[in-house]
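User: Need the bound-state model for 1,3-dihydroxyacetonephosphate:
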Amino acid sequence: MRRPLVVGNWKMNLTTREAAALVESFKKAVEILDRTDIVVCPPYISLPCVHACLKGTNIKLGAQDVFWMEKGAYTGQVSASMLEDVGVTHCLVGHSETRGRFGKLEVSETTLCYFAETDETVNLKVRRLLYCGMTPILCVGETLGEREAGRTDQVVRDQLSDGLAGLDEAELHPLVVAYEPVWAIGTGHTCDTAEAQRVCAMIRAFMCGISSELAASTRVLYGGSVKSSNARDLFAQPDIDGGLVGGASLDAYEFKDIVMSAR
Ligand code: 13P
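Assistant: Bound-state model below.
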């Protein structure tokens, strides 16, 4: 039996003080919930403060990215052990926004190459997190152009097989996969429930190719314009074990309602 999981990705939002205030109100709202795993992913700079605010709760701390080397001359990067040191247990990997694939493009086309994540760097990051005993949340999903070209399944399968290359069943046990169609991120266009279920089932079938036990235990989340009004339907699908929530996780009561929908 897979426990539902709801992850809030705060992206590049909130100062440390605002992050603390959000956690304080959210904490009160979810005090009684114990059947759903909850993770919040603040920006790096707020991790220590949010960790202190989460003390005494079941809410876990996640990061939005990680670098794969242990230490060294990598200006601007943060290692898995540094994250672990400030209480991080979960980490997003390969989010479409770090791959330079945006649902709503707010940067200029000429600066897109800054977001240079590849399946190879995703693989290095997943390996590093697993090696450090942390939970990678591997994000996969197609752009609108890829969907319209009928390439959704191939894109998702390639991201999975390249992102997880060389890892075996025993190593992959902690992995969480999040299906986030790029065109649904921050756009208000949620993926149709039946289609989200179909792709999440395909992700589970991919995991089944590694082992049936892994397929049965891996949690697969849906992300992309999740709100309290659509969460219940999405989370009721047999292969959707919860959500990866962006914008709506910045509102304590809205996020609480989404978490409650996952029970
Ligand atoms: P939204 O919920 O704002 O669409 O963002 C989804 C997302 O990218 C979570 O990682």
